[in-house]
Amino acid sequence: MPSMAANNFSRNTHQNQTKGDFVSRKQKIEQQRKNLPIAAVERRLVEEVRNNDTLIIVGETGSGKTTQIPQYLYKWGFCRDGGIIGITQPRRVAAITVAKRVAEECGIPLGQKVGYAIRFEDVTSGQTKIKYMTDGLLLREALLDPYLSKYSVIIVDEAHERTIHTDVLLGLLKNVQKARSKSINGVVNTDHNNSNNGHALEERVDNQNDGILKSCQVKKHNPLKLIIMSASMDARVFSEYFGGAKAVHVQGRQFPVDIFYTHKPETDCIDAALITIFQIHLEEGPGDVLVFLTGQEEIESVERLIHERLRQLPECSRKLLTFPIFSSLPSEKQMRVFMPSPAGYRKVILATNIAETSVTIPGIRYVVDPGLVKARTYDPKMGVDSLIIVTTSKAQALQRRSRANFLNFCSGRAGRDGPGKCYRLYQESFFEKLTDSTLPEIKRCDLSNVVLQLKALGIDDVINFDFIEKPDRTAVVNSLWSLYLLGAVTEDNKLSDVGRQMARLPLDPVYSKALIIASQFGCLKEMLICVAMLSVESIFYAPREKLEESRNALKSFASPEGDHLTLLNVYRAADEFFQKNKMVHSEEKAEKNLRKWCKDNYINSRSLKHARDIHSQIVRNVEQMGLRVTSCEDDTLLLRRCLAASFFLKAAMKQPDGAYRVTLSGLIVQIHPSSVLFRAKPECIVFNELVHTNHSYVRNVSRIDYLWLVELAPHLYAVQD
Ligand code: ADP
Ligand code: MG
Fold it and tell me: 194: burial class by Cβ within 10 Å (0-12, 13-18, 19+)?
């Protein structure tokens, strides 16, 4: 909740600056840039990039790698031949905030020379030369442009995070680099130029006018410079993977950080974090606080509790401002964490592990680390992909600690008043038991999406693909099996026509397939809404102190058929409200009224806005694919049959004790209390999500008839005796 204090704060932003302020801000930024450790080695770094086609740059977080290196390369002519510099980030937030920062450093509006692109949002233009994007997005671009020909340099940033997309991208870029250097000598790599990709490339070239066609061909013959950037000191794994590529280290500036542990294990992390935050606020010297939490819900409840406790303090001790940062937060709000705190105020930043290495927030002196993180895990035996809260690795704990490093040098002031402090909310003996580093994501998540994309890129033999670290064979085989069941690959493991269509959609394969099936059922209009709503986090807002009111609000949308229809009702009601408002008000006012409507109805307006954006993007996608967007109007039976036909991989049957048995894996689950079917407990359900806390719960559940599964997914279901 933005407090009064936070509002005061935003008045200090550069949006309301006078010309004089602007000049001084520009000078200040210039000064900050010069002060960064990386500035001292600018020329050397540029030389290294010039001399090495693949270079690994290792540097401590905050040294200036992400914001500065692309600017250096641009300045020193790496875009001269018309190519652009692409920088991938594992996280959307990093791509957005860094692009904004760099545009500001360059003194230009975002979206021109400097821009960013993430799934469902493209803020670039024909002029863009420095493009920040997510690693997943660059992978998608490769589907349309297998040579990634518009890039002269690609920087894979935060490679140490080893997200699944980064890992796949590394393998792909290795191929692209080889193919591009071969094509310089007139040899086009035919392995890579398979019919599908070749076709996509031709299409693209055909559509260009002559001038662009020429530059496209020129670009195709340019070698690709590859830079792998990592905050982990161990560059060996990347260097070996790229045939002994050179690695350079950028020295950071480490300040001492004192570490504190608890005396006994903490049972309530939120409470422990709150106590620590207030202890720092009331007893410690100046400096901002960074608290690592596991997700949006936890962040929002800690923020609320901080404000509650602040109200109990005497007026003079209330000078504390809270700033949340997590991936689904709107980007204007994300940027607020970077603003310096007004004189006398202390900032408390409540962050997910986004703030571990991807974004560096200046001014942090105190770090509160409960030692937990939300991570994807995958059980290949059960075929279950889920998000669970796990303990961090030692490497993560060290990164978190090092965030207490940058009190003054980034904010332009020299020296600092004393060491940073890191409060680990666990015992020292517990730290010793943590694993050294985090397992790469490719080892712990469902691979269907990646396998589908690799196949669409013409890489058929996924098991033998040159991964930096091979995924488990069972996981690959399982994903091939589910892709086969979805009709995306044929019996001999080749991509089918449906699979090719599915790969074109920026969605999970199951959702892509749902859209294709819905177009056949004549309910694509409804399914587009369901998929958009399923793609965002928590649409419903149920604060603990208003549980009763929020439950009542939900009742007006609830459908006895299940959560999918309930989500559809919410979307339709919101849309109707918005359209009516737009007829009499400006768009801006209609948006504002919609936010109020959301608040009154206990709907999370951020999530709804996100769902509306996703919806318009996927409507465009399906139209481009030539799918017919027809509506089934109020035929909910038809829609539920379509849900059964789409989500048959996740069906479950009620057991005598009221629990459910997932038909394919045999896993025993419960319907999540947030589901509209929690009490109704129908005989047979399909669901989209499985969450593990103390029980295994399924969320986003709809009531179906078992016989529909037999009829619509006969390859898996038979009539039961
Ligand atoms: P690295 O990639 O090496 O971790 P960055 O290039 O991200 O470092 O950051 C360099 C410096 O720029 C950091 O010290 C950080 O404080 C500052 N910085 C980065 N983004 C912003 C921003 N949006 N606003 C203000 N300062 C920023
Ligand atoms: Mg960085």
Answer: middle
Residue 359 CA, ligand 2 centroid: distance in Å? 6
Distance 92 CA to ligand 2 centre (A): 13
What is the pLDDT at residue 328? 73
Using only the alpha carbons of the chain, give its radius of gyration: 26
Q: Is the CB of 478 under 6 A from ligand 1?
A: no
Closest ligand 1 atom to Cα of 38: 3
The CA 195 to ligand 2 mean position distance, Å, reads 37
User: What is the Å distance from ligand 1's center to 64 Cα?
Assistant: 6
> Is the shortest distance between the CB of 235 and ligand 1 below 6 Å?
no
* Partners of 154 in beta bridges: 86, 226
pTM score above 0.90 = no
Q: Cα(first)–Cα(last) distance of the chain, in Å?
A: 55
CATH for 257-442, options being 3.40.50.300, 3.40.30.10, 3.30.70.100, 3.90.1150.10: 3.40.50.300
- Low-confidence stretches of the chain (pLDDT < 70) are 1-23, 184-221, 380-384, 406-417, 544, 693, 721
Question: How far is residue 405's CA from residue 621's CA, in Å, rounded to a whole number?
Answer: 45
Model pLDDT, residue 181: 86
Fold of 35-182+219-250: Rossmann fold (3.40.50)
**What ipTM, to 2 d.p.?**
0.98
What is the pLDDT, as a whole number, of residue 382?
Answer: 67
Work out the number of other CB atoms within 10 angstroms of the CB of residue 1: 9
